[in-house]
Each structure stands twice: as structure tokens, then as C-alpha cells.
Amino acid sequence: MVITLNVPTVLVVAGFDPSCGAGYVADVLTCRIVGVYAVVVPTCIVVQDLDRVYAVYDVDHKVQREIVNSVTKCLEIKCIKVGVIRSRHCVDLVRDLVTELKCPLVVDPIHRARDGTTLTPLEVLQYLLRELGSYITVLTPNIEEAELLSGRSIEGIDDVVEVAKYLTELGPRAVLIKGGHLPTSSKVIDVLYDRGSGVVKFFEHTRVGVKFHGIGCVLSSLVASHLAKGMGVVDAVEASTSLLDTMIQYSYPIALGTEYSVVNVLAPLERDALRYRVLCSVKCAVELLERYGDVVSCLVPEVQMNLVEALPHPYAKSIQDVVGIPGRIVRVGGRVKAVSAPDFGASRHVARAVLTAMKFNPEVRSCANIVYCEELVRVLKELGYRISSFNRAEEPEHVKATEGASIPWGIETAIKKVGYVPDAVIDYGDWGKEPHIYIFGKDAGDVVRKLIEVARKWKGDQ
């Protein structure tokens, strides 16, 4: 017996952006991340990069109708998402579709690109509202588009609420106005008004100081995906804004010569996969360390050892993104033993050391602390290890007074002293602070192999 999964499908009506940060490429990726399938009716090809538009070529409306006929024959469409739409013919096509399918409709009324190029002509937007207004489940304009469609100016958050309510009078059940273009100090506030329930809801996000390309496309596709899965409007928007926060948090620049980033829509999936991978990496490294426990036991300091590995950039934000050993690695009967299974957030000091190193070299994601003595430093030098150090006697008073600041200060000082992340950093300790040597590597296995090499050389010299 073959079991088939009934995966909801979103029909995306949008343009092609060759940078893939916006348009239907971003829409499809977003839908798939949420667990929804997506098919596309292209409206145009926009020749652009992250900064500007060079040309726009429309797709013939007859071709669009042929595509609709082909994709709707074998797929059950649970929601329609509209982005850039260039003609009345295309509006009529969407109207016919939503009338036939009787499914939710999400419209992102994209009027202009950031360089001012018109994408959806104003007359088409106005026609869209007249013809599709009563079918729209969620309309997702930004501040400028909300002003354009309503004919009202927006100066503050109260105006956003009033304009959202007014736009629902034109037909849409709900309006989500994106607040990124509204100067509201350190916060971005999106406003949802759901005429169906009378709910006004505010979604606050930290303003990250980065300009994003395609953020509106991603948000509207998230909403469409959650509606396709059967969520109500308010729940769908709440889930979408929360997921978008995660995608933004782990975004990073992808192109030279531009100030814009694209939303990392793969972040939720990548982060979970990487967490599993790093846990497995540390687990295997600990098994190797224990296998050579009689060799490396001489390296365990009085405060015991920890072995950590951080998630790759850009996912390593705090010690909660670093795997360590709860209870540390201890010396028992001339061997070493991990007290517990590897887990996230299990280390503070060694985790802070590797997070600091990653700021200078993201490829260095692992670290272990070992005992300090002059003979061991000699061994490291003979093995060709690059070494730096820091002296806590030079630590500024304000750093000493800040909880958790000493190790980051020390590691940063040692790195800046030599201009790169070394293989080993010596912490000479202080009153009540045992000296250490931090061994760095690209992953936990790399660090453990270094520990075995160092311990063998040291024992052989004794």
C-alpha cells in the first residue's frame, strides 16, 4: 500500500528576480521551508541586481493562462499569493482562479523597486483592489504602498492602524502593514488589522541596521503558506512574523559592493541540521579523546577540561549555540572521561573563547582548555604550533568588573597581538585563577587530534 502525503500547494503569481532574493524564487523557497509546495505563474522577468532594476519584460497573458491550466489540473491549490502583477489581464486571471478555487488570497501590492522603477503600475493596483478586493484574505503593503492605496499620509503608528482599517473597507478581510519604513527608534512595528475578528495586533522586531532585499516577498509567502496549512489569519501572521525574525537574525551579505542583504529563508532548516551535525561532531571527538585517555590525561588541568564546538557562522550568536560537555571532562584512574553527553550551552569560559576567535576567523569553531606549564609550551613550539598569550594583570578594571568579559578580552588581546587566530593561546592566570592553554581548531575532531599529538610528544620527551 502506497501512502501519499497531502501537502498543501500555494499558487504564486509573481515576477522573476535573477538575484533570487525576491520574486517567485524567494516565494517558492519560503513555501518549501514551511512545508508547503509551490507552483508559479510568472508575470514578468525583472533584470536587476540587489541595488537597481535595468529592465522589465512582461510574460504574455496567453502563456500565463496556459500555465494555470497545466498546474491546476493535478494540484489542489490551497492559497494564492500575488506579488508583482503587470496587467489587467493578469488581475482577471487571478480573479477567475480565486472565484473557481475559493481559497485564501494574499496580495503583496509591490508598486516600485527601491530604485524607483515601477513594477506594478498604479492603475493596475487600483484595478486589482476593485476586482479582487473582496477576495483578498490578507493585503501586505509597506508604508509607502499603504499611503498610495489609501490616499492618506502616515506619520506615526496611530496612522498605520487607521489606514489598515480604511483599506479593509475596500474589500480585504485583513491588512498587514509592514513598518520597516516608519522611523520608530530601535523597533520595527508591523500592524495587522483583521476585519473578520476586529483584532488589531502589533508585531515588534528589533531594527537590525541592515537593508534587506525581498523581505516583503518572504513575509507574504510565509503568510500564504500558513493559510494554506489551515491556520486562521491572526495565527498565520503571528507564526510568519516569528519565523521571519529567525530568518533575519541569521542573514548575512552575499554580494560585494552593495549595502543590501537577502533574507536567509533557509535559516530555520539549516540551523536545526547544523545543531545535529555539531552534536555528532563533539560526540565523536569525545569518543576519540576517551579512546586515547591514557595518553591525554596529562593535559587535564585542576579545574578539569572542556571541549567545545560552535555552530558555523552566522548561527553562532551566544554560548547557547556552542556544544560543550556538562560537568566537563575529568581525569579518572589515569584516563579521561566525559561526565555527560555533549549539549548546547554546557560551557561558559571555553565557549566564550571560541566565540571570540570566530569573530576573527569563522573557520575556527572548536577549542579545549588544557594544563599550563613551561615544558608544555616548549612542546607546542617544537611541534610548530602558532602561539600567543595574554596576561590578566593587564586586564582593564571595567573588564574585570563585567561578568563573563575576561575570557573574550584575553582571547581578543592574544589574537590582536599576532594578527591571526593561533593554534594555542596561553592564559597566564591570576590570583585564584589557574593558568590555562587554549587549543583551537576547525572542529572538535581537529582539536582532539592536536591534543593527542601534543600529549604523545610531551610524554615521549619526559
Architecture of the largest domain, according to CATH? 3-Layer(aba) Sandwich
CATH domain class of the largest domain: Alpha Beta
**Model regions low in confidence, pLDDT < 50 over at least 5 residues:** none
Tell me the fraction of residues in β-strands, as a range.
15-25%
> Sheet with the most strands?
9 strands, mixed
Strand order of the largest sheet: 3-2-1-4-5-6-7-8-9
End-to-end separation: 68 Å
Q: Helix count, per DSSP?
A: 15
Radius of gyration, in angstroms, nearest whole number = 28 Å
Give the overall form: elongated
Helix content: 40-55%
Structure summary, number of beta strands: 20
CATH homologous superfamily heading of the largest domain: Ribokinase
| Averaged pLDDT | 92
Summarize the structure in words.
It is a single chain. By secondary structure, the protein is of the alpha/beta class. It folds into two domains: 9-264, UDP-N-acetylmuramoyl-L-alanine:D-glutamate ligase; 270-461, Class II aldolase/adducin N-terminal domain (L-fuculose-1-phosphate Aldolase), CATH 3.40.225.10. Helix content is 40%, strand content 21%. The protein contains 15 helices and 20 strands. The strands form four sheets. The protein has a nine-stranded mixed sheet with strand order 3-2-1-4-5-6-7-8-9, with helices on both faces. It has a seven-stranded mixed sheet with strand order 16-13-12-17-20-19-18, sandwiched between helices. Helix 11 (349-360) runs parallel beside helix 14 (406-418). The N and C termini lie far apart (68 Å). 44% of the residues are buried. The mean pLDDT is 92.
